[in-house]
Amino acid sequence: MVVRLEEMVNSISQSERLKREAELNALRARINPHFLHNTINSIRMLAILQDSDQIADLLRAFSQLLNSNMKLDQELITIREEIVFLKDYLQLMELRYTEKFSVEWRIQDETRNALIPAMILQPIVENAIFHGAAGINDRVHIVISAEVSADGSQLQLCIADDGIGMDAEKVAKLNEDKYGTDNRNIGIGNVRDRIGFRFGRQYGLSIESQVGQGVKVKLSMPFIGGDKFVEDDGRRG
């Protein structure tokens, strides 16, 4: 009986490890082929049309993005590192989607050194840009916030947009604790499972939305690390 239990524990442990590797590979794949190809072409066309400092900035952002992508091998990174990655990502997205979105940062200082899974916010922000702006002419305004719960035990992250929103049926489907089949579901499911796998199923992701009133995605996880005072890294959110 004891041997059998040990075999079961080892099997579960191996399955979880393989699952995590698959998740990390999936995230890399999502940010690699089409996005990288389109970005390179956009930068190349801009270089042909004009010679400016903007080209150097975009290439720098692109290089930093690739470096950040490699950090998926790390268990956890700080929120300030995640913000740097997101700003590079958004700078490149602005090249392809000019005047389609704006971003506002509301990051509590005490959360900047808090630890979170690497690239946990990027799929949510990507959804806000692609799905939030679909079918509307005005730019989508995205608010990215991070704060500590009143009792100091939880880190609460939120990505909210004022885009087209979703109906109740779609919201309910996305809030189910399982993967879906479309791109939005896959990204949401991946984020939810990464949080649950790392911290436990009492933490995770929830979605609030109404048609025409945007989408709010809330992430919860334990507050790990973080300082009351964080030196300015020159790229504060």
TrEMBL record:
Residues annotated as domain Histidine kinase/HSP90-like ATPase: 119-222
- Supply one GO CC term from the record: membrane
Q: Which InterPro entries match?
A: Bact_2-comp_sensor_kinase (IPR050640), HATPase_C_sf (IPR036890), HATPase_dom (IPR003594), Sig_transdc_His_kin_internal (IPR010559)
Q: Name one GO molecular function term.
A: phosphorelay sensor kinase activity
**Residue span, Signal transduction histidine kinase internal region domain:** 22-101
What name does UniProt use for this protein? Uncharacterized protein
Q: Which organism is it from?
A: Cohnella cholangitidis
Q: What is the lineage of its organism?
A: Bacteria, Bacillati, Bacillota, Bacilli, Bacillales
